[in-house]
Amino acid sequence: MKRITFLKASLMTAALALTGVNSPTTLAANTVLKIGFVGVTSGPAASWGISNQRSMEAGAAIINDNGGVKIGSTTYDIEIVSFDDQKDPKRAIAGMEKMAQENIHYVVGPNVDDGAAAVRPVAEQNGIIYFPYAFPKSLYQKPASNAVLGMVANYQSGPAIYKFLKDNRGVNTVAFIAANESDPLTQRESGVAAAEALGLKVISKTVTYQVDTTDFAPVIIPIVKLQPDLLVLSGVAPANAPQIIRSARELGFQGLISTETGQDAQVLQEGAGSLANGFISVGGASTPTIRTKNMEAFIARYTEMFGEYNDESNTKVYALEYIVETLKANPAAINNVDEFKKTMDTFSAPNQYLKGDQVLRYVGMSSFGQRRQLSIPLVVNVYNEGKFETLFIAEVD
Amino acid sequence: MSSENIVMEQVLVNGLYLGMQYALIALGLTLVFALMNVLNFAHGQLYVVGGFITYIIYGKLGLPFFVAIVASGVTLGLVGAVIEKFLFRPVIRKSVREESTMLLAAAIAFFLDAIILLLFGEKQRGVPKILDGVMNLDFVVIMPYDRILIAALAGSSIVAFILFMQYSKPGRAMRALAQDRIAAQLMGVNVDRYSMVGFALGAMLAGVAGGLLVSIVGVNSGIGGPVSIKAFMMVMIGGAGVISGAIAGGFILGMLESIGLTVLVAYGDLTYLVIFVSLMIFLSIRPQGLMGKPWG
Lengths: 397, 296
Hints:
CATH topology of chain B: ABC transporter involved in vitamin B12 uptake, BtuC
Helix content of chain B: over 70%
Distance between the termini of chain A: 71 Å
Radius of gyration of chain A: 22 Å
Number of domains of chain B: 1
Largest sheet of chain A: 5 strands, mixed
Strand content of chain B: under 5%
Helix content of chain A: 40-55%
Order of helices and strands of chain B: HHHHEEHHHHHHH
CATH class of the largest domain in chain A: Alpha Beta
Number of helices of chain B: 11
Strand order of the largest sheet of chain A: 2-3-1-4-5
CATH architecture of the largest domain in chain A: 3-Layer(aba) Sandwich
Structural class of chain A: alpha/beta
Largest sheet of chain B: 2 strands, antiparallel
Oligomer: heterodimer
Strand content of chain A: 15-25%
CATH architecture of chain B: Orthogonal Bundle
Largest interface: A-B, 44 and 51 residues
């Protein structure tokens, strides 16, 4: 009997020790701070939400491995609570209600426009600040005040890219193509307006495609015949980008191709190979020349946890960092989003992922009239032989 | 030659190419429905598994594309046989309600979606081109060689399937089963065996289609549902459970897409709207589809 008890105790000790090796923070007995994620992690757009969720989980693991984060006088371990909204606004509402039931005040997501709009009443009634990856301005303009745009919007990055290409590459004519869904179509409209405002000639803006298209040749032929200087893939999902690029190039398209969404170099390499060379997209702390050792450590941790890094996370690494750093700046905000909102106006912290003197701060005065956007560096990349190279870096104000 | 002619010739070639791949996708779905009266909502997920097997074998391990296609087909055939024997057969035996098999098929689709996401991740996957170069007939018709090869392979698979169904003993048995299950049983056809063979064949066709198309459009873990929906559309157009109907449905949908994307481009996002409206009107007039029988 004693022997059995001893064996049991030994096994339990060994198990605890092993658990500790993998995740030391589980033994740290810190208070747990729950941060939510509501977004799409299944279906054709899963890539968007999964890179969000995994970025948060990798960021939390790094914090917890280092003994937690001290906010005020308390040290917290971070726990990420996730909910797959399946890109369905009804599910997004259910997800945000779940976050409210768990007394979570800070939620990253949803990933798309209709989901972000749908959760607004739930977030406002329950004292939740949420960080959508959706672009409608009404979410961030008064009287709305609980949504904080988690990335650079296409109506901010588009004009910067088009202007760069107009000034440096002689672009005069533009064509737009978008998936037949609300987000890409909205982004196409604002892209067209931005291009026209810059004096570019928009020669095609009606071509659309279904997200399950298995042959892009018939879709792209009308544009290839027009041979614009620039083809903009509005709001293109990483799953569709290589297929469209490949079809366009195979059919003889000679001009530049760009998008305002984040992409993954490996996906482009596998799907389009060298045909994707020269493709311009938006990244975050993406290329080796501009990222810090902390960003390298984040990539290593992400890869260790999930087997493979996703370049879309170069922009999505920031949301959790902003939440934690803002709470550190004002510990009273941990259960009070009004305190969080006050802090947003003056908050500033070093950007630990990007070389140089860029800082984390809340922006959006120009676009929304209030600081309801994370200042993510606008890094514009060009794809070349399996990797991204930085074309230029800009900032949103 | 006028620009309109140039467009229409290209449109026809694109429509034929699309039709070829769509017909291959729809064949397996209609075969399973014909034999077992099962709406296999997991057909698109089987297509995705086939695509990922080719991705691993050809794209990652570097083995010949042909080997990868065979592996996709054989593996999916085995998966189909297992699904039929251990899941559908007991449910069909115990339940007289048709919705039981529909629920089972939906459950298998959700299960496969989750497993595929777990095993292969969320990223879009692609493989190296199987053929370089583009056929350009004086800018009248432009078609990359790899698409021509894939269309030829898809067409060959369809022809091989038709010949198998027409002239082989299992093919004849399955056709008898599709025509009248009771009569076939009374004539000595082993219903269990040929139901399993039929389901395996249907899954194999989905796997081959997925393997072929991964070389053109790649594959991702979330595309199974949309592929199933498109396959159901083709089957509805042609007539559920009719092999020739599925082929016709595939070509009709491919041609409608190709024409719509060219003719309607100036009017915005209308192609699929027009296709769906046409389908609704068509089904209200002829609910059994082009070649389906009105009595079931």
